[in-house]
Amino acid sequence: MVRPTRETERKYEVPPSADLSWLPGLDRVKGVATVVASGTEELEAVYYDTADLRLFRSRATLRRRTGGADAGWHLKLPMTGDSREEIRSPLAADVPQPLLDLTRSRTRGAELMPLVRIRTDRAVWRLADAEGAALAELAVDAVRGESLRTHAAPTAWREVEVESAGNETDPALLDAVEAGLREQGITRAQSPSKLARALEETGAASAGDRDRSEGLGGSAGEQVLAYVRKQVAALTVHDPAVRLDRPDAVHKMRVACRRLRSCLRSYRTVLNREVTDPVRDELKWLAGELGAERDQEVLRERLTDGVGALPRELVLGPVTARLQLWGVGRGDEAHRRTLDALGSPRYLALLDTLAGFVEKPPLRAKAGEDADRVMAKAVRKEFHRLAGRMDTALSLPPGDERDAALHNARKAAKRARYAAEAARGALGKPAKRLGRSVKAVQSVLGDHHDSVVARATLRELAVAAATAGESAFTWGLLYGREEAVAAARERQARTAWNSASKPTLRKRFSK
């Protein structure tokens, strides 16, 4: 059993000569009524990582803590700002399997080993409002760190941690507390965590060991690789959220697959396709495995909303119950398929390949050329492919053939959009405007395709209802409404395409 929580805290350096007897004076901070000493704790934490610090380099930490109220295994994953997600598991001798799974996208299956032991003598202060409700916890820590992988001398320091009491704490309160600490010469810590400082001061690692994004330069290779790195990082970040079944996580991970795969295709003049084509094949496989769950999510929500929008007198028979039964069964099956894919050797091999790809990219000669010219040509090529598919689709009469052609145009719209997205750093506003207009086309075509899929499912549900002796009226009504939606989206697609293909918008890419 794991327990995810959100942690928002700030760390501060404490000079050796600092006198902390003034801490109760923080009750003058706006919103804080009392500052009460809450006792002391003796904590010991052993931090685990791979030999090449894959967790640390991706800003994640895994520790086994004893002592204090939260003894157990703690996995911390980065979020925005001062927040991190902390996932806890009960104390055990070895790393619990659920936490191993949640680190998989970062470790890529490499062995986890103890790296650093940190002992902390902690004095805790509770900051509360006038009603006595906790606002934040302030901890004064005397820290001793030792490396478990080198023979370096131990290190020691003092620090202050201020942690929000909950997700609703106003950041302004933390700012005000920080201002009070700064008046006493206590400033923000340079190291992001105790682990980072211990690793650096014992020589086991330095701040430079963290992953760094290279600065954007003028070459096509630098621009394309910056985009590739961003999407590879997105795959890594969204993996734990998918395993925890977080809302929209599957969608975000699948989009990262698509963006990366599209980039590798669009910029084949920059990257060697003999290397990238097999990677694209594996990304297609992963997106397909994720797609089963995502498509089911979208379809279930669409059908549920459709039933919910009907007047009660038009819902005949056990429509809601049948839909729920269908949705739960399909959803559970699709989620198991996702987890099976993420637990497979094939997935780990893909992650390893992507890591190697980022470290040693297979650049071609054009990678060193000016990004403006190379990337504009790639965007232009994708846009022309989209234009051909849209012209074909819109020339066909309504029916299955047109539905398929519009779906193919939607795929081309995605590739054109992602090609423009990757080129923003080089091409600026023209790429941004083109990407935005193509996204509008993609969105309309996406809703059209969802309607096509929904109609096929509604027919299946109607047949099942009729076979069971239930009324199929409501399913037929929903089918008819989806037909009307599809017809409207076809009209909107033409309008959106006319806007996206305006000469003024295409001028930048028409050379």
User: Can you tell me the CATH topology of the largest domain?
Assistant: CHAD domain
How many helices? The count is 15
Mean pLDDT: 91
What's the β-strand tally?
9
Number of domains: 2
- Topology as a string of helices (H) and strands (E): EEHEEEHEEEHEHHHHHHHHHHHH
Architecture per CATH nomenclature, i.e. the level-2 architecture of the largest domain: Alpha solenoid
Descriptive notes:
The protein is an alpha+beta fold. The protein has helices spanning 54-57, 97-107, 171-183, 194-201, 220-243, 249-266, 273-308, 319-342, 345-359, 371-395, 400-422, 424-427, 429-467, 473-500, 503-506; strands at residues 3-13, 34-49, 61-66, 72-78, 83-89, 113-128, 134-147, 155-164, 187-188. The protein has two domains: 3-209, Hypothetical Protein Pfu-838710-001 (Beta Barrel), CATH 2.40.320.10; 220-509, CHAD domain. The longest helix is centred in the C-terminal third of the chain and has 39 residues, at 429-467. Strand 7 and strand 8 form a beta hairpin. The protein has an eight-stranded antiparallel beta barrel. Residues 211-216 have low confidence and may be disordered. Helix 6 packs across helix 11 (400-422).
What's the arrangement of secondary structure elements?
Elements: E1 3-13, E2 34-49, H1 54-57, E3 61-66, E4 72-78, E5 83-89, H2 97-107, E6 113-128, E7 134-147, E8 155-164, H3 171-183, E9 187-188, H4 194-201, H5 220-243, H6 249-266, H7 273-308, H8 319-342, H9 345-359, H10 371-395, H11 400-422, H12 424-427, H13 429-467, H14 473-500, H15 503-506
Antiparallel strand pairs: 1-5, 1-8, 1-9, 2-3, 2-6, 3-4, 4-5, 6-7, 7-8
Helix pairs in contact: 2-5, 5-6, 5-10, 6-7, 6-11, 7-8, 7-9, 7-13, 10-11, 11-13, 13-14
